[in-house]
Write a structure and sequence with these properties.
The complex is a heterodimer. Helix content of chain A is 37%, strand content 20%. Chain A is α+β, with helices and mostly antiparallel strands. The termini of chain A are far apart. Chain B has helices at residues 25-35, 86-93, 110-126, 151-158, 178-192, and strands at residues 3-5, 10-18, 45-48, 54-67, 70-78, 98-104, 136-141, 167-169, 212-213. In chain B, helix 2 (86-93) packs across helix 3 (110-126). The longest helix of chain B has 17 residues, at 110-126. The radius of gyration of chain B is 17 Å and the shape is globular. The chains are: A alpha+beta, B alpha/beta.
């Protein structure tokens, strides 16, 4: 039996508090904490405007893709990345070896403010994630909880 | 790494379609995206060159069944098959939970299949992972072409590890057995996390001893 790492309701509430405080101070729209494989760990802010799952997958790819670029100038990786748009921008910073924080922001704020507050937020997120118990309160289920029916259906009308 | 979130009541899994260049990995995802209930999927994101070759990865998020009140979310990725993009393949394999190895059934592609399979094993080893511990299935694609190797030869070449895994005869361009492959790897993946450890019979409702899934009659679309 393998247990899946879990985020309890308390863990998520603590994370949400950190992220809410960061968003308020930085005046950003949305922040997402992801692992480097592209999985969403936590998210906070206005999520109606975009598919967070896709943002997470692409951001993880983008972050990893610049590692080689960093190596060429003698760095292990870039701690932060900034993608500047006309109205909306993305700032990404490393939380720890496994985690990245993505912040989407608009014209209400500046990249300097986002960068300044994201450093402290990332440190708090890193501390919290470090304390997560991976093995001893993992989630598992019985084989009988899974039906034998196909999980995904091929539907011609889709 | 799969992760479970008690607040949003979600479990996330990552499945990677791996295989040599032009073997049909993207076609698999395209077919799934086209045919699955739109309510259960997000957008198909394809980072491809002008010639439709996968440059970085394709990505398709799917929502699936509910287990004990938790929604399972599967994220499907493909890797770029071309040899030069190995760094990208390593990157996409990060935190993988399940693998579909897509082989091109044509005789002339056999060397590329073997190379790609070896490359998969090497890239997993770099992340301290092994196919022995990772839910995976084999997909023998392009079974509609004339110059294809028989299934027992493909099994001999690719399905020769200590524990044989399920293999599927697929025509990804028409969708034949595309969903059977996806369902099998998803079931094995879920079974891995269940208390019953022998998961390899799950998936396509296989009988004990049966590992291969032959083509099904084509579904008639009304």
């Amino acid at each position: 039996m393998n247990a899946i790492p879990v985020l309890t309701i308390d863990d998520v509430a603590t994370l949400d508090n950190v992220l809410a405080d960061f968003l308020k101070k930085a005046e950003a729209e949305l922040t997402v904490v992801i692992d480097r494989g592209g999985n969403v760990i936590s998210q906070f802010g206005d999520m109606t405007v975009m598919d967070v799952t896709i943002i997470a997958a692409l951001a993880a790819g983008s972050f990893a893709a610049t590692r080689e670029l960093a190596r060429r100038i003698g760095e292990v990786e870039f701690n932060a990345l900034y993608h500047q748009g006309n109205g909306s921008h993305i700032f990404m910073n490393s939380v720890d070896e496994e985690t990245i924080m993505i912040t989407v922001f608009g014209p209400r704020t500046t990249v300097g403010l986002v960068r300044f507050y994201s450093t402290a937020a990332a440190q708090q997120v890193a501390l919290l994630l470090k304390s997560l118990q991976k093995d001893n309160h993992g989630f598992s289920f019985n084989a009988s909880d899974i039906s034998g029916a196909p999980i995904f259906a091929d539907t011609p009308s889709a | 790494m799969s992760i479970i979130n008690y607040a949003s009541r979600e479990i996330q899994f990552k499945i990677v379609y791996y295989g040599p260049a032009l073997c049909g990995k993207t076609t698999n995802l395209g077919y799934i995206h086209q045919r699955i209930n739109p309510q259960n999927r997000g957008d198909l994101v394809s980072l491809a060159t002008a010639a439709d070759r996968t440059l970085f990865f394709d990505f398709l998020p799917l929502n699936a069944l509910v287990i004990k009140g938790f929604v399972t979310k599967f994220q499907l990725y493909t890797v770029p098959g071309q040899v030069i993009y190995n760094a990208t393949r390593q990157l996409v394999l990060r935190s993988v939970d399940g693998i579909v190895f897509v082989a091109d059934s044509q005789w002339e592609k056999m060397e590329e299949n073997v190379e790609s399979f070896k490359n998969l094993e090497e890239n997993l080893a770099k992340q301290n992972m092994s196919l022995d511990d990772l839910p995976h299935v084999l997909q023998y694609n392009k079974r509609d072409l004339p110059n294809i190797a028989p299934v027992n030869y493909l099994d001999y070449v690719l399905n020769n590890r200590k524990k044989r895994v399920q293999s599927f005869e697929v025509v990804s361009s028409t969708g034949q057995n595309v969903f059977a492959t996806l369902n099998a790897v998803s079931q094995i993946l879920l079974q891995k996390f269940s208390k019953q450890s022998d998961a390899n019979r799950a998936g396509a409702g296989l009988k004990p001893g049966q590992t291969h899934v032959a083509p099904q009659p084509q579904r008639i679309v009304a």
